[in-house]
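quick one, 164 residues, struct below
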Amino acid sequence: MTWLGHFGFSYVGLTFLLMLWVPNSLWARRLPAGYDPSSESKALLVFERAGQVLCTASILLFRDYNPRSLEPWTAWLFASASLMALYEIFWVRYFRSNRTVFDFYRSLWGIPAPGATLPVAAFLLLGIYGKVIWLTASSIILGVGHVGIHMQHINNMNESKDAS
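---
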């Protein structure tokens, strides 16, 4: 099969994107108390935005993420889906909380910045499962920006706590 044979719609990709977009849309309507994006690094924002566009395109345009058969390689898909399930748990916990910056950035079962690390890691593993270098590389670009921004917010939050 030529590389052109890999193009096609991915329903797994669409499912992952919906799992990402729906809670983020709800979050954007009511930002957490104390959230201030004004100090975000412009360089990290460029990585984040580029990663978002590249991930969205590559997750929808390659059919390689759709399950083929149950084989040992499918463990990558299960691991990726498990991370997305944890991501949904993160959102449930957040929406049931007081919706403060602390609630948004606190770790989930030892996973730091789960709102950033879980979807990035899930996309990375999905890229590995599908053997699609474009999603794998896009996930790394997204991770540099998205996780970097979240860690920047956590550091700022901790500094302001220490100052008070």
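DSSP finds six helices and no strands in the chain.
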